[in-house]
Amino acid sequence: MERRNFIRNSALGLGAGITLTPSSMLSANAGSEDVDLSKLPREVWIATLTLTKIEAANSEGMVKEVLGHMADIVNYKPDIICLPEVFPIFNISEKTTIEEVAEKPLGKITSRFAEFAKKHKTYIICPLHTVENGKYYNAAVVIDREGKVMGEYRKMHTTEGEMGKGVFPGPLEPPVFKTDFGTIGIQICFDLEWNDGWEKLKEKGAEIVFFCSAYSGGMAINTRAWQNKYCVVSSTIKGTAKICDVTGDEIAKTGYWDKHWAIAPLNLDKAFLHTWPYVQKFKDIHAKYGRKVKITNYDEEEWSIIESLSPDVKVADILEEFDLKTHIDHIKSATEIQEKLRKG
Questions:
Q1: CA 131 – CA 212 distance, rounded (Å)
Q2: Cβ(330)–Cβ(273) under 8 Å?
Q3: What is the CA radius of gyration of the chain?
Q4: How confident is the model over 85-111, as pLDDT tens digits?
Q5: How far is the C-alpha of 322 from the C-alpha of 342, rounded, in Å?
């Protein structure tokens, strides 16, 4: 069927944010089954902090302030908590130097957050200055649910001001961290101005990238999410902290009433597709899976998101069953054919 006529005649040509589950597309079995939607198959609860209007006399006081604010949200049972860039030295009245606060984890500061992580069974991204072999780094230490250090990301693109104070840029190969809910990566503040770290994290399979920063980043945070097809979570010294889905849509953010925390669940069992030509299979997917699968179309962008709403349905299996390619694989496939034809 010609593409233009198909879109005009299809009941699937709906707008962004519309859940495509009309009753005509549900099979008799799907409509009568008891579907447990209370817990998504790969649901992860994320909490992220902004330091806006949080002040202290010194670094020790700031650590206590942040731990106190973290205690306020443990009733959410977050899977991971993200904190802002080198937060122990910001919004404090006493002057301090990097040499005075930098540590090799687990040190004086990170051990406090490791204790919190173990007590509340949560991962923590704890950004601070670290030191190794006499070199100082603007880093983010990843602590697991047992209070153990998984590793650290060192800011790749340090500012001139930082380097003037003795902070070294980190390696140009950002690590990813395998958690029990998925693969995560980190970028820090000035890294937002370069593409390389974000793209390498995509290549390494990151599903969530945490952006620890002194500033908010605004629309650039949303853009990094949809460009790379992963979730982006920002944590800031000042301004908005937010949680963005793979489409760049904001799931939660801080603001006038939510002054310090953005807290929300993300469903990681979803796939980002180019709508055409895969929209031709959506009716069959609905007929088979009904309420167990959600499909959302973005008309202007021609994006489609397929996500599982049932513990017994995996999106990867749907992609294989219906011969669907993710957006990344779709572009990769077209690029390979283009290159082959150019070579003659």
A1: 19
A2: yes
A3: 22
A4: 999 999 999 989 999 999 999 999 999
A5: 30
Residue with tokens 């700031």: 62
The residue among 291, 276, 298 whose CA lies nearest residue 22 is 291
The domain made up of 43-267 has a fold known as Nitrilase/N-carbamoyl-D-aminoacid amidohydrolase (3.60.110)
Tokens 């970028």: give the residue. Answer: 187
Phi, psi of 121 (to 5 degrees): 55, 55
DSSP 104: P
Give the position of tokens 């650290």: 152
* Nearest Cα residue to 53 out of 97, 76, 84, 82: 84
Amino acid at 200: K
Backbone torsion region of residue 77, taken as left when φ is above 0, otherwise alpha when ψ lies between -120 and 50, otherwise beta:
left
Token pair 């209370």: residue? 38
pTM of the model: 0.88
**Residues in contact with 59: Cβ distance below 8 Å, sequence separation at least 6, in sequence order:** 88, 89, 92, 96, 100, 101, 109
Give me the residues paired with residue 103 across strands.
130
Strand order in the sheet with 293-298: 18-19, 293-298, 303-308, 270-274
Q: Identify any residues that bridge with 130 across adjacent strands, giving them in sequence order.
A: 103, 137
Q: Quick one: pLDDT at residue 344?
A: 83
| Contact call for residues 54 and 69 (beta carbons, < 8 A) | yes
